[in-house]
Structure formats: C-alpha cells, structure tokens
Design goal:
This protein is an alpha+beta fold and about 190 residues long. Helix content is about 20%, strand content about 35%. It comes from Aureispira anguillae.
C-alpha cells in the first residue's frame, strides 16, 4: 500500500480520524472519500458495521448474506453501496482502482440473483458522511483528520482493526499514533 503525502483531497483518499476526535460518529473512523468538490464532499465510514443484513433493511432485495455498515450521520434513511463490479454494473462511479460507488439498483438485484455479484464484491452502507463547502478543508487544518491513499483492501478486507492497521502500514509517526489507546471519557 502506498503512503499518502499531503495531496489535495480527492476521490479515493482515506480520512483517518485523529486519535482524540471524540465525535461518536467518527471516533477511530476510517472514511473513504468518494467525492470532493468546491460545493462539498462525501464518503462512507468503512469500519462501523451494524448488526444487520441487507435483507433486514430491504425486504424486496434478493436473499443475500451481506453485512451493512454505518456510512455516516447524513441521511440515515438511505442505503448506498461500494462494489468491485464497475465494468458490469451500469452507471457506477469509479472511486479508486477496483472500487466503484452506486450504479443501477435494479440491475444490481438481477446480477445478485444470477450469482454475478457475491457478498465479497459489495459493501452496503446506511447513511453517509458529508461536508459542506470548505468544511472538510477546515477540519483538516484543525487536525481532525489524517489522510492516506485508499486501496481496495481497505474497503473490502477485514475491518475490525482498520483504524490501527491503516496507520501502522503508513509507518513513522502514523505507526506510533496507531499504538495509542482510545481516550477515556467521563
């Protein structure tokens, strides 16, 4: 995995919560930034699974054993998905190499029924993380987020210790930060 230099924010970058960020939505969170424009940014928290399956949320969805994640506090009544099948699923948007966002939902259901998309190929999210114009840049200036290059393994791999693992892989100061215990809050 490549190390991230302080490049401009862009699609495919990971936002890694600073160790003392205490907002419960983002504490020790790793967010895949899916879009960053002048008028705002959005992404999905990769390491906050919820105790639900996609079939628990959408009764008309084909039987499919896919865990659902908390994508963020914005529009928690919506469902989004990241997947590896951008070459197959129409209207998918490339986020980074091998990772795509969205696409034709009805076609997605058909491909699942046909077995062309398996649980390892997709991750579902309830809600998303969003920032208004200039907000994310301001949060970086006050050191709420570290930035790291995204990688497909961060999105679809094991995420139990994702925050720690991402930082350790960067080495140096990031590796030291990864060893910090969570803050104790009263």
């Amino acid at each position: 995995m490549s190390k991230h230099t302080e490049n401009e924010l862009e699609s495919g970058v990971l936002l890694v919560a600073e160790p003392f960020l205490t907002d419960p939505n983002f504490k020790r969170g790793v967010i895949l930034l899916c879009d960053h424009q002048e008028n705002g940014s959005f992404g999905f928290i990769l390491n906050k699974p919820i105790e639900m399956n996609i079939n628990d949320l959408i009764s008309s969805f084909p039987s499919f054993q896919s865990e659902v994640y908390y994508g963020g506090p914005v529009q928690t009544d919506t469902i989004h998905y990241l997947h590896t099948k951008g070459d197959l699923l129409p209207n998918s948007i490339k986020v980074l190499s091998g990772v795509y966002w969205g696409g034709d939902f009805e076609q997605l259901k058909e491909f699942i029924k046909m077995g062309k998309i398996e649980p390892k190929d997709i991750r579902f999210f309830v809600g998303y993380s969003g920032w208004s114009a200039g907000q994310l840049n301001m949060e970086r200036k006050i050191l709420s987020w570290m930035t790291v290059n995204g990688h497909i393994d961060y999105v679809f791999g094991e995420n139990k210790e994702l925050w720690k693992n991402v930082l350790e892989e960067q080495g140096g100061t990031y590796g030291i930060i990864a060893q910090m215990p969570p803050p104790i809050l009263n």
